[in-house]
Amino acid sequence: MSKLIPITILTGFLGSGKTTLLNNILRQFPDKKIAIVENEFWSEGIDADIIETSREEIVEINNGCICCTVRKDFIDAIERLLSSGRHIDWIIIEASGMSEPLPIAQSFLMQDMGGRVRLDSIICVVDAVNFTEKLMQDVWTVVEQLEFADMIILNKVDLAPKEFLPTVHSVIRKVNHHGAIIEASHAEVDGRYLFDTARFELTNDIEKEIIEHESQGHVHDSSITSFLYTTEYVFDTQKLALFLGGLDQDIFRVKGFIFLEGYTERFLLQKAGARLVTEVDKSGFVDPQRKTKIVFIGKNLDQALLWKRADECTNRPASVLFNFQ
Exposure winner among 15, 78, 243, 262, fewest CB in 10 A? Predict the structure, then answer.
């Protein structure tokens, strides 16, 4: 009898470091055939471009979280992977920062897909720097992501005040009594704690939650939306930094690829909380159109205003500024 393929669910709020952890995993297991299911809350994929290797099978599911609106697409994607005839050692699902892991896990607990897979682990990545802010933004989702994880990676501890970390540990323990907590910087975790661990256990509490979820359904805060800004003009570095640094807390996440005046390279832009990082894109992708794509995620987004303010940071001629599409 062939060995069941382990499935790992990576969960965690927007900007916690899930894609960084995924890239670290891929570097540690160069000989493993890893299939990645990449789920994004917005309609055009960004995260799949950030994954640094093309060796893996990558399936994108966009414009909705796996736990609700695109669940059928998600199940179909796994079925396609399993029916492809390719050898697969490990399936990793990187869920949207808006997803709750339990409904995703339920897909494998309620059906074993022909006895080919098993749920190996649910790993929750937590942003140690912006933990309090994330709780305030969407406490229900954060709690759901933490509650049933069998491992919690407390990421960015190098950037968080040391005196604050015990408080974060305490809050996590109040929500999750059993999962191991590992502190990390840049989401660097020993792969031995991540692959083929058989950590996940179906407890009575989890079974009860699954039943309740099926009966009650799942609804996201309708005020949380996303939109994609695009332009073929380049940004002034200082103007862009001032614009992004001045965004209010209702904008949870900014992520995308940009082009800057004076540079030929494409840059990866990421903002979570107050932390803004811009670095040269290492994916090797060449965009002959040099087209910027930035995703904004937040509450009650004023898309026209954000588009206007972003346009003001580019070298777009004044006669064609503020072309909100």
Answer: 262
Query: Which residues pair with residue 170 across a beta bridge?
Result: none
Which has the closest alpha carbon to 95: 134, 57, 68? 68
Look at residues 168, 85, 158, 167 and name the one whose alpha carbon lies nearest to residue 126: 168
Minimal CA–CA distance to 17: which of 195, 241, 224, 188? 188
Strands 251-258 and 292-299: antiparallel
Query: Is the pTM for the entire model greater than 0.90?
Result: no
pLDDT digits (tens, 9 = 90+) for 262-282: 999 999 898 877 778 899 988
CA distance 135 to 141: 9
Burial 167-189 (b: 16+ CB within 10 A, else e): ebeebbeebbeebebbbbeebeb
> How do beta strands 251-258 and 117-127 pair?
unpaired
Q: How far is CA 186 from CA 18, 108, 146, 149, in A?
A: 10, 30, 20, 20
| Secondary element (H or E) of residue 302 | none
> What single letter denotes the amino acid at residue 94?
E
Residues 6+ apart with CB under 8 A from 312: 239, 243, 321
Size of the chain, expressed as the number of residues it contains: 325
d(CA 50, CA 38): 11
Tokens 């968080």 -> residue: 160
Pair of tokens at residue 97: 């920062």
Alpha helices in 218-280 (DSSP H): 237-245
Domains of the chain listed by start with CATH number? 5-216 (3.40.50.300), 224-320 (3.30.1220.10)
Q: Is the pLDDT of residue 76 over 60?
A: yes
